[in-house]
Design a protein that fits this description.
Layout lengths: L7 E4 L5 H12 L3 E6 L2 H11 L3 E5 L5 H14 L3 E6 L15 H22 L3 E10 L12 H21 L5 E7 L5 H4 L8 H10 L9 H12 L10 E4 L9
Helix pairs in contact: 1-8, 3-4, 4-5
Bound molecules: NADP nicotinamide-adenine-dinucleotide phosphate.
Length: about 250
């Protein structure tokens, strides 16, 4: 018996890294899982990898028409939605304040903050009672990381919005929590390096900031997501769950 038998989940950005690991784990636990992403080849590959419980819908969280189309398709599935993981996101650029551009600033806020907010808003009619919403935070939201100002501000905004949504949705029995990964080895984080030669050095630097002195694995973040998705976390809402190897709470 799986922890998510008979449940329906949506993982935005479920084609890569953390989102893909979460979608795979949820499917293994018995859930029907909708995944999204903007790139069709990656979407098709992820659906093939996860197996028959996965359904891929190409959509961009920053496009409201795409979101309407996505939720109309989930409605056709006819079982509502038990778990929403608003995972899609990332950073357009690593820039210090002197090199910050309006384009990268707007892109990070449009995808991470606006995308998360309207994904949650448009899911509301479909969410079953006692549904779990999981938003994706970052350890960078609670400490200063050079050149990650815009990204970390989007993650602080998501954390704060999630607290308010927890309050507003509590009467429906819907819980909202923010999952906070530490540095996790994904295509997304590797993409922050300015060249392929710099990836290893960058990952080592990230790992050195973590008490466990290593990068996280997407599967480890998925295990924490599973906890938030099920009633194992029934007395948690408006909270943050750190799966970060001790990055945020342990002073190195
Ligand atoms: N990796 C880390 O160390 C780390 C740490 C803390 C928090 N996080 C957060 O965890 C989440 C996943 O990160 P990751 O490292 O797994 O990234 P990733 O490997 O780059 O995967 C990102 C996923 O989101 C999708 N995506 C991006 N923009 C989208 C959009 N506008 N609409 C729909 N889908 C979109 C991507 O597919 P397409 O590009 O095809 O759209 C992909 O499936 C992000 O919210 C990130 O901020 C990551």
């Amino acid at each position: 018996m799986g922890a998510l038998d008979e449940k329906t989940a949506l993982v935005t950005g479920g084609t890569s890294g953390i989102g893909l690991a979460i979608a795979e784990r949820f499917a293994k636990e018995g859930a029907d899982v909708f995944i999204t992403g903007r790139r069709k080849p990656e979407l098709d590959a992820a659906v093939a990898r996860i197996g028959p419980r996965a359904k891929g819908v190409r959509s961009d969280v920053s496009n409201l028409d795409d979101l309407d189309r996505l939720f109309a398709l989930i409605a056709q599935h006819g079982k509502g939605l038990d778990v929403l993981v608003a995972n899609a996101g990332g950073s357009a650029a690593t820039e210090t304040i002197d090199t910050l551009t309006p384009e990268s600033f707007d892109s990070d806020f449009r995808i991470n903050v606006r995308g998360t907010a309207f994904t949650v808003q448009k899911s509301l009619p479909l969410l079953n009672n006692d549904a779990s919403i999981i938003t994706l935070g970052s350890t960078s939201a609670s400490r200063a990381t050079r050149a990650l100002g815009t990204y970390s501000a989007t993650k602080a905004a998501i954390r704060q919005l999630s607290r308010v949504w927890a309050l507003e949705l509590a009467p429906r029995g819907i819980r909202v929590n923010t999952l906070v990964p530490g540095p996790t080895e994904t295509p997304g984080i590797k993409g922050l390096a300015s060249s392929p030669d710099e990836v290893d050095g960058m990952l080592k630097l990230f790992a050195s900031k973590v008490a466990q002195n290593r990068m996280g694995r997407p599967e480890e973040i998925a295990a924490a997501a599973l906890f938030l998705a099920t009633d194992q976390s029934s007395f948690m809402t408006g909270s943050e769950l750190f799966a970060d190897g001790g990055e945020a709470q342990v002073l190195i």
